[in-house]
Amino acid sequence: MELVLVRHAEPVRIDEGDVEGPADPGLTPRGVQQAERLAAWLATEGVDAIVTSPLRRARETAAPLVAALGLEAEVDPGISEYDATAGHYIPIEELREAKDERWYATIEGRWADVGGIDPGVFQQQVVPALDNLIGRHAGKRVAVVTHGGVINVFLAHVLGIDRLLWFHPEYTSISRVHASRAGPRSVATINETAHLIATRS
Fold first, then answer.
1. How high is the pLDDT of residue 199?
2. What pLDDT is recorded for position 135?
3. Strand 185-192, strand 174-179: pairing
4. 3-class SS at 70?
5. Could you give the C-alpha distances from 45 to 41, 56, 130, in angstroms and in order?
6. What is the pLDDT of residue 104?
7. Quick one: which H or E segment has residue 145?
8. Please, are residues 80 and 172 in contact by the beta-carbon 8 Å criterion?
């Protein structure tokens, strides 16, 4: 089977104190366009199922593909992001550009400093969730709309990389994993973004 791992499209920023409870941003207008381009691209690939994180930015990214294919998206809490319960959401790209201390905390695994859960706990959440999905969809192509942390952790697991956050998935980027229920996994592509600049005829 093939896992088509997709990072969500560009979300809005939510600063501390802007909302009560966990921040759960939707997409920016540019993010909506990214999601639409993703849907047009993947609609030609014979996707059999769509699975999404319960977070709004992932569900809104999946929505155009759901509509294009006439499928119902399965929502899986196991592929939520490590900071799903944080009271703020600042895109990691903004933190990196500003050299914000929260950027360094994130890449160094000090996720509690940014409202996240322990990296080891997160890994134990993500890997079984995606392994379970593989087991339930033998021989299928499944689009999984999720988050940068989830994609990093699962690809690190497949490739045997110790560092959990080791690359930067672009918004709506596609990373593909070929897998079987018997165990073998292989990473076919990482961070595809052709759909953002091209169309398929």
1. 76
2. 94
3. antiparallel
4. coil
5. 8, 25, 21
6. 92
7. strand 141-146
8. no
Per-residue DSSP letter, 80? -
- As a whole number, the mean pLDDT across the chain is 95
How many degrees, rounded to 5, is the angle at CA 34 between CA 31 and CA 38? 140
Query: What ranges do the domains of the chain cover?
Result: 2-10+28-81+117-196
DSSP track, 20-50: SSS----B-HHHHHHHHHHHHHHTTTT--EE
What residue type is 44 in one-letter code?
T
Say if pTM beats, i.e. exceeds, 0.85.
Answer: yes
pLDDT of residue 137: 96
Euclidean distance between the first and final Cα of the chain, in Å?
25
b/e 169-193 (16+ beta carbons within 10 angstroms → b) = bebbbbbebebeeeeebebeebebb
Is residue 176 pLDDT above 80, yes or no?
yes
Q: Which CATH number fits domain 2-10+28-81+117-196: 3.90.180.10, 3.40.50.1240, 3.40.50.2300, 3.40.50.80?
A: 3.40.50.1240
